[in-house]
Amino acid sequence: MQLSDSLELYQWLEKQDLLASKPPLWWPSYGTFEVIVGAILTQNSKWEKVESSLANLRENDLLSLEALSVIENDLLMTLITPSGLYKTKARYLKRLAIAITDEFGDFELFCRDVDREWLLEQKGVGPETADSILCYACERAEMVVDAYTARLLNAFGMEYELYEDIQSWCRSGIEDGYEEERFAEVYALFHGMIVEYVKVNSKGKVVTLLPVS
DNA sequence: GGCCAGGTGTAAA
DNA sequence: TTTACACATGGC
Fold it and tell me: What does the pLDDT look like over A41-87, one tens digit per residue?
């Protein structure tokens, strides 16, 4: 199968009902501060492990900007141990919570005023984490690219490597195919469907493309 | 028991 | 400006 643009890929994925058992816009707790924490914790880790770290934080009433800004470092490390890289992630999380509070005041104002540049200046926030926060926490029209995206495009015979190249390829077809007010929703679903498709249809790093009738 | 997971920062070449 | 390498747990 040959892809002419990302709109075709998006609509091909849509036909496969990949998000039936998922939250409406795929990321759990879409539009909340939890997404920021999840975006850091999921780096080079599996989502199931992130869930147990998030549950640990939630049980202790620590899943908020205010609580994470003042949390004891040892406690934070202990609670997020299940998702790995816990020393660095604990450092990143607390620094980010403090930075958001200092710069924007609260989560709502952060969502309104933050931009990609500011996020990328924060330690521990690279392109994927920044875009995940913008897309799923701030409800912005931002396309998230990750290892799954690259693998799926590879399976279609495309040889993208740069994050921005994949991202602009994904965006261009959507911008032509949908009204602007739907971009935020469509990008959120697009990335989610890619992840779910690759999870189901890959063995190791090889993605199998299944025809959809 | 090695490999991998929804990356990122840093130190060498 | 590119290319290693560290970070770390837990599931397969």
Answer: 999 999 999 999 999 999 999 999 999 999 999 999 999 999 999 99
- H/E element holding A176? helix A163-177
Measure CA to C1' and name the residue nearest B8. A124
| pLDDT digit string, tens, across residues A79-118 | 999 999 999 999 999 999 999 999 999 999 999 999 999 9
Q: What domains appear along chain A, each with residue ranges and CATH number?
A: 6-24+142-207 (1.10.1670.10), 34-137 (1.10.340.30)
Instruction: Please identify residues in chain A, positions 34-63, with a C-beta within 7 angstroms of any atom of strand B.
Output: 38-39, 42-47
Residues in chain A: 213
Q: Which two tokens stand for residue A189?
A: 């679903």
CA–CA dist A195, A189 (Å, integer): 10
Question: What long-range pairs does A154-162 form, CB within 8 A, spacing at least 24?
Answer: A154/A207, A155/A206, A155/A207, A155/A208, A155/A209, A156/A1, A156/A2, A156/A3, A156/A9, A156/A209, A157/A2, A158/A3
Tokens matching residue A180: 């602007």
pLDDT band at A208 (very low <50, low <70, confident <90, very high): confident
What tokens were used for A200? Answer: 């189901």
A148: tokens are 């799954």
| Cβ atoms of residues A82 and A49 within 8 Å | yes
DSSP helix/strand/coil, A160: coil
Does residue A92 lie within 7 Å of nucleic acid chain C, judged by its CB? Answer: no
